[in-house]
Every structure is written in C-alpha cells, then in structure tokens.
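Student: Send me a single protein entry containing the residue sequence and its fold in token form, directly below this note:

Tutor:
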Amino acid sequence: MKKIFALSIFTLFLVSCSNDSESDLMEKAPDNNENPIDTSGKVTFTKDILPLIQSKCSSCHVSGGSESNYTVYNTARNSASTIVNRINRTQGSGGFMPEGRSKLSTAELALFDQWITDGKLE
C-alpha cells in the first residue's frame, strides 16, 4: 500500500509540471527598450567596440581632437579600464562619459566589459 501511495504522489508531481512551457519556466529579462547586442561570439574592437566609439565618443575622442583618440585600437586597448570606469559613472557626475550625452545602454556597457573579459581582442 505504501508503494502505491508513493507511486501516486510521484506521478502527481510529474503530471503537475507537464503543462509548464520552457518560456513559463524561464525568468523573463526586463525590457529596457534597448536593442539587444549579440555577444555570443568573442567581442572584438573592430567588430563591436569601434562602432560604439564612433557613434558615442567620436565628437571628442578622434584623430586631431583634444582628447585621446579611442578610434585607434592600441589607444583604446591601453585605456580600456579608464574608459569602462568613466562610462559606468552616474550621468552628470564628475568624469562621466560621454560628456554632454546620454549614458550608454546596459547592453553597450556590457559589451565593453565583455571586450575586456575576452582579452581586448582587435
């Protein structure tokens, strides 16, 4: 009798979970109205970071500018920690970048972090 009861409980447990779809079981990521950035492969300067620098930082950080030229791989690679520190600061605080512009999206910030994690590949 105990075996039948235990088997019944086990069967009930299995059946109770059978209607849950995978999407119901997965935690839904918050929607921050951001365009997702593909980080499935290794993040590289040329493919991922340079386009961000060109679109978000080029008003100051370009060749001939008064600030460091982060469109050059070696300059960006050597300054990666500083760049990440400054773009992660609170908007409006001292040293925040990009100065006078909106904070980078969470996905864009993560891309810089992943670039460093991946070894600051060119």
Summary: The helical segments are 2-16, 22-25, 45-56, 73-78, 80-87, 106-117. Confidence is low (pLDDT under 50) at residues 5-34. The first helix runs from residue 2 to 16. The CA atoms of residues 34 and 105 lie 7 Å apart.
